[in-house]
Amino acid sequence: WQAWRRGGGAGSAKKVSYWRGQRIEAAPQRRSFSAPRGSELWRSLVFLLIGGVLVLGALSMLVNYITF
User: Fold this and answer.
1) Which of 22, 55, 59, 62 has the fewest beta carbons closer than 10 A?
2) Per residue in 5-61, pLDDT tens?
3) Is 45 within the bounds of a domain?
4) Domain count, the chain
């Protein structure tokens, strides 16, 4: 689920830094949308495949129970 998340934490939080005792607040940098990395994508696909197999198994058991 974190692979597709666009940011992190509070979206409206400002970046705060201190320089010579002065507090400086800057707007957060906007990240452009980027596709998930390969490792994250493979992990998602593996979980999707496992979930699909479990759903098909449950449907098979349900059909078997109903027909007999």
Assistant:
1) 22
2) 555 445 456 888 888 889 888 887 777 777 777 788 889 999 999 999 999 999 999
3) yes
4) 1
- CA distances to 51, 53, 56, 60 from 67, in Å: 24, 21, 16, 11
Q: Distance between CA atoms of 66 and 40, rounded to whole angstroms?
A: 39
Of residues 27, 37, 32, 50, the one with CA closest to residue 2 = 37
Q: Is residue 63 part of a domain?
A: yes
Tokens of 23: 């507090």
Q: Tally the residues of the chain.
A: 68
Q: Is residue 21 part of a domain?
A: no
Q: Is residue 47 part of a domain?
A: yes
Task: Give the residue from 53, 56, 52 showing the smallest Cα distance to 64.
Answer: 56
